[in-house]
Specification:
There is one protein chain. By secondary structure, this protein is of the alpha+beta class. The protein is 13% helix and 30% strand. The protein contains 2 helices and 11 strands; from the N terminus they run βαββαββββββββ. The strands form 2 sheets. It has a 7-stranded antiparallel β-sheet. A 4-stranded antiparallel β-sheet has the order 5-10-7-8, with no helix packed on it. The radius of gyration is 19 Å and the shape is globular.
Length: 205
């Protein structure tokens, strides 16, 4: 009997949260600054936006999803706590994009989509381990692409979609081809707890 094992799989959690009129109104009033290089988007000046009382219910919902990811996907021990380190709004106007990047000094990262006009750009994730596989060395023609043979994978986005993924996973967003602005809320997650494996490798966060 055949058995396929998705060894060392990278878990990307997709779920949905309600985006209320109050959330939209609050986010649209945020002061912003341009991300360099130009056309790489506009971000809120507030880098801890989920700490604002106007988003307290939204933060609770996101923390519930983080808890689910921690306990049911990663199966991290209960004495290790995950918390949102920083959070910000990103606005991509027409022809704005996000270059390929990952998030430093973070354990998990997340994106909640607030506004997603048609043709404003989905998110693409990249196989960080492709250089050590056969894929870059051989230009193999595939009948169809799947999670086993792809060097990148695009996930469609829509209003209210929440993505959680390891912070080291590279991702990008292509040019916004719509005449409207795509808006998302991004955040990074760190851990607290005793990472004691032995006296030599002990680390307390």
């Amino acid at each position: 009997m055949r058995k396929l094992t998705p060894l060392f799989a990278i878990p990307i959690l997709q779920t949905e949260l309600p985006i209320t009129k109050n959330i939209n109104s609050f986010i649209n009033k945020q002061e912003t600054k341009t991300i360099e290089p130009a056309r790489n988007g506009i971000t809120s000046k507030d880098n801890y936006i989920l700490d604002n009382k106007n988003l307290c219910n939204l933060k609770k919902q996101i923390l519930e999803e983080i808890k689910y990811y921690k306990e049911n996907v990663l199966c991290v021990k209960k004495d290790i706590t995950l918390y949102i380190k920083n959070s910000w709004v990103i606005m991509h106007k027409t022809n704005h994009f996000s270059h390929t990047h990952f998030h430093l000094n973070s354990f998990l990262s997340g994106i909640l989509y607030i506004k997603t006009p048609a043709n404003s750009g989905d998110i693409t994730f990249y196989n960080n381990y492709a250089r050590s596989s056969l894929l870059p060395l051989l230009n193999i023609p595939f009948e169809k692409y799947n999670q086993y043979n792809s060097s990148n994978w695009t996930i469609p986005v829509k209003e209210g979609k929440l993505l959680l993924f390891p912070s080291g996973l590279q991702h990008s967003v292509p040019n916004n081809l719509s005449l409207d602005t795509r808006i998302s809320l991004a955040f990074n997650v760190l851990i607290k707890g005793d990472l004691k494996e032995s006296e030599i490798s002990h680390l307390n966060l």
